[in-house]
Amino acid sequence: MKGVKYLGLILCIAGFVRGQAPVVISQPKTTEDIVRQSGIQGNARPEPNAIVRADDELNLKDSAELLRLATAINDELRKNGQGVLSLKTLKKVEDAERISRAIKQRMKRR
After folding, report:
1. Cα(69)–Cα(88) distance, rounded to whole angstroms?
2. Domain segments of the chain: what residues?
3. From CA 22, how far away is CA 53, in angstroms rounded?
4. How confident is the model over 40-80, as pLDDT tens digits?
5. pLDDT of residue 81
6. Helix (H) or strand (E) holding 35
7. Whole-prediction pTM value?
8. Neighbour-count burial for 68-106, b at 16+ CB within 10 Å, e otherwise
9. Is 33 helix (H, G, I), strand (E, B) or coil?
10. How far apart are CA 3 and CA 65, in angstroms?
């Protein structure tokens, strides 16, 4: 996720240096964003399968991020020793909690 933000920033800077308009890269963040990108316009209701597919796609992406965070938290806990937590580790724990709640909410929607 960080890499995408940095890539977008680099492309914007490169565009300004060359005198071109900046390029904006956006990643879908919600199910509605993915359904919207699939071409459904106006007041048309998206088909239920499109919503389920979008939820599955976001769940896979979020679960990979959750695994990365859990591994990083585990490594930091082992490295720092007993009873010592850095603010960076606490931030990762909060991010993992936020991601797991989002996955849970999407799964409940089914």
Report:
1. 11
2. 2-108
3. 32
4. 555 666 677 888 888 999 999 999 999 999 999 999 988 88
5. 78
6. helix 31-37
7. 0.58
8. ebeeebeebeeeeeeeeeeeebeebbeebeebeeebeeb
9. helix
10. 13
